[in-house]
């Protein structure tokens, strides 16, 4: 009899249950609100927000956002009352991880097909060190080079440094300041390559090479405008242009500063039909840009080499270029046939 009485005394009464219910509902409400907030920050492209500011900028750092959400989930899971929130946050981390993790897993490198080594770099208003770019060219002897934010002035500094290496140079916007142009260098061994200029991008005319040793392959030096707050529509339009090569009738390689990561839905849509060299080699998160060299290891990968189906990346590496806010990307592609 005394045991039953003690049990009745320890059970919460109706009043206590009524007090607990609002607390439980509040915890669930907080968990839902915070989880949605975390999803907006880490997964804005899945919510249709990544083509608006500030989400177009934030999603470029998705892997770091996911790390922050994971740490928060572990912290709130320590007290029992925080577990509903921890479950929601971990769900966000799981979804985001399934999108990011494949970029860290290399596919089998191609072993057949003719090699084509590609180098691309943004010189940051033409201020990047031409000697460093020349050293990369001299050391690795790329077949095709795409240099963004480079025109007559930068080429004038670079050309004497690579004059003995045998390259034909082309400028997309002659007479313009460096930032409004692209430079393409093609190894003389490629023969009689035809180079044309396209000016339907927002600010930066691109260069397209084909024929000669390239065959039907089109090599494109491309630079998309950045997704600043007042230029988001132009940024999306520039990335849409990628489809003319990635979904085109002939094989293509597009190299340059695309001002977008694989986390941007606009880039994924524009490059449908292409693969990314960095992702193929398990280096899809290797940073290529930061306004400060000290923070470069934490920056996004916005410089890319894209290739249509069948063209594979055998190697991929990133190289620091003094005085530029971008690192150079070097990759050796294998082209079937």
Task: Describe this structure as you would to a colleague.
The mean pLDDT is about 95. The protein has about 325 residues and is α+β, with helices and mostly antiparallel strands. The chain contains eleven helices and twelve strands. It starts with a helix and ends with a strand. Helices cover about 35% and strands about 20% of the residues.
Please summarize what this structure is:
By secondary structure, the chain is an alpha+beta fold. It has helices at residues 2-10, 14-42, 55-58, 62-76, 83-100, 130-140, 152-158, 232-240, 243-246, 265-270, 277-280; strands at 114-122, 144-148, 167-171, 182-187, 194-198, 206-210, 218-223, 252-257, 274-276, 303-308, 312-319, 328-335. It is 34% helix and 21% strand.
Shape: elongated
Sheet bearing the most strands, described? 6 strands, mixed
The largest sheet has its strands arranged as: 3-4-2-1-12-11
- Summarize the helix and strand pattern as letters: HHHHHEHEHEEEEEHHEHEHEEE
Query: Roughly what is the average pLDDT, rounded to an integer?
Result: 93
Calculate the terminal CA-CA distance, rounded to whole Å. 90 Å
Q: Helix coverage percent of residues?
A: 25-40%
Global structural class: alpha+beta
Which stretches of 5+ consecutive residues score pLDDT under 50?
none
Number of strands: 12
Tell me the number of helical segments per DSSP (H or I, 4 or more residues long): 11
Strand content: 15-25%
- Radius of gyration equals 26 Å
